[in-house]
């Protein structure tokens, strides 16, 4: 079964796109971290556990004929992307005085559950197949979408965009806020896992020059220059 990509997922994918090329430099991360920000860290152990959680769901999905929409071979980068994005959106919420309640997050998950039902799958099957989200991170996903929804309303004067042009402009404004929040957090990724790319706001493979290094430091990080 192929999961139909909902407008929610398409909107999210477009919202995280922004113009700009990433330039790399080296810094230092905390030992044992997959990624760090100015105020927190994502441990390698946490990442490994969540990748295992996603792969277990992929196996369950496959048993029911549900096919992932993203390359399963890139699960590590995809999961790390989500872990970083959740921190970025927490920063956005703080910067814009957005207060998300458990009820707000649950409302988003209820909407996702309805989309899953329309595809004849469970919520866990839907978010894993359509978005590479480990089931254990579903609560954080609800909060992420609640913050995104509130941010869009704030940026568009409390109204939903009424035209394609307004939607495009809003997507650019959201991407700019993601850039500012990522820059403020000073996101750094261990090159073992890739690099935080400001063109897609996702973890992508590290540049070949780093991959060719015969003895890269385990504590090295790749930092991309924010275009904002």
Question: In terms of topology, how is this protein built?
Answer:
Layout: H1 7-15, E1 24-28, E2 33-36, E3 41-43, H2 44-63, H3 75-95, H4 102-118, H5 123-131, H6 138-155, H7 164-185, E4 188-189, E5 195-197, E6 202-204, H8 208-211, E7 220-224
Antiparallel strand pairs: 1-7, 2-3, 2-4, 5-6
Helix pairs in contact: 2-3, 2-5, 3-6, 3-7, 4-5, 4-6, 6-7
Describe the structure.
With 228 residues, the chain is mostly helical. It has one domain. It is 53% helix and 11% strand. It has eight helices and seven strands; from the N terminus they run αβββααααααβββαβ. The strands form three sheets. Strands 3-2-4 form a three-stranded antiparallel beta sheet. It has a two-stranded antiparallel sheet with strand order 1-7. A two-stranded antiparallel sheet has the order 5-6. Helix 2 packs across helix 3, helix 2 packs across helix 5 and helix 6 packs across helix 7. It starts with 6 loop residues before the first helix and ends with a strand.
Sum up the structure in keywords:
3-stranded antiparallel β-sheet; 8 helices; mainly alpha; two-stranded antiparallel ribbon; 53% helix; 11% strand; single chain; 228 residues
Q: Could you give a short description of this structure?
A:
This protein is mainly alpha-helical and 228 residues long. It contains 8 helices and 7 strands; from the N terminus they run H-E-E-E-H-H-H-H-H-H-E-E-E-H-E. The radius of gyration is 18 Å and the shape is globular.
* Strand portion: 5-15%
Give the % helix.
Answer: 40-55%
Q: Label the structural class.
A: mainly alpha
Tell me the number of strands: 7
Main sheet makeup:
3 strands, antiparallel
- Average per-residue pLDDT, rounded, comes to 85
Unreliable segments of 5+ consecutive residues? 14-29, 214-219
Number of helices: 8
How many structural domains can be distinguished in the coordinates? 1
Q: Kindly, what is the distance between the CA atoms of the first and last residues, rounded to a whole number of angstroms?
A: 40 Å
- Tell the overall outline: globular
Side-by-side strand order of the widest sheet: 3-2-4
Radius of gyration: 18 Å
Q: What are the secondary-structure elements, in order, as H or E?
A: HEEEHHHHHHEEEHE
């Amino acid at each position: 079964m192929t999961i139909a990509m909902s407008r929610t997922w398409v909107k999210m994918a477009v919202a995280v796109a922004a113009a700009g090329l990433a330039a790399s430099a080296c810094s230092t991360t905390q030992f044992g971290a997959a990624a760090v920000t100015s105020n927190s860290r994502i441990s390698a152990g946490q990442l490994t556990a969540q990748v295992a959680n996603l792969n277990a769901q992929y196996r369950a999905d496959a048993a029911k004929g549900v096919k992932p929409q993203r390359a399963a071979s890139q699960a590590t980068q995809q999961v790390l992307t989500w872990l970083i994005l959740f921190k970025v959106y927490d920063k956005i919420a703080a910067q814009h005085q957005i207060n998300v309640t458990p009820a707000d997050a649950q409302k988003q998950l209820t909407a996702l559950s309805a989309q899953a039902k329309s595809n004849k799958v469970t919520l866990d099957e839907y978010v894993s197949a359509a978005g590479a989200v480990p089931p254990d991170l579903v609560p954080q996903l609800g909060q992420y979408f609640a913050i995104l929804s509130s941010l869009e309303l704030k940026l568009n004067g409390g109204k939903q965009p009424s035209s394609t042009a307004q939607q495009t402009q809003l997507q650019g404004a959201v991407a700019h806020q993601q850039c500012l929040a990522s820059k403020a957090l000073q996101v750094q990724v261990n090159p073992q896992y890739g690099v935080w790319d400001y063109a897609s706001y996702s973890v992508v493979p590290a540049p070949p020059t780093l991959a060719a290094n015969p003895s890269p430091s385990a504590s090295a990080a790749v930092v991309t220059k924010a275009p904002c």
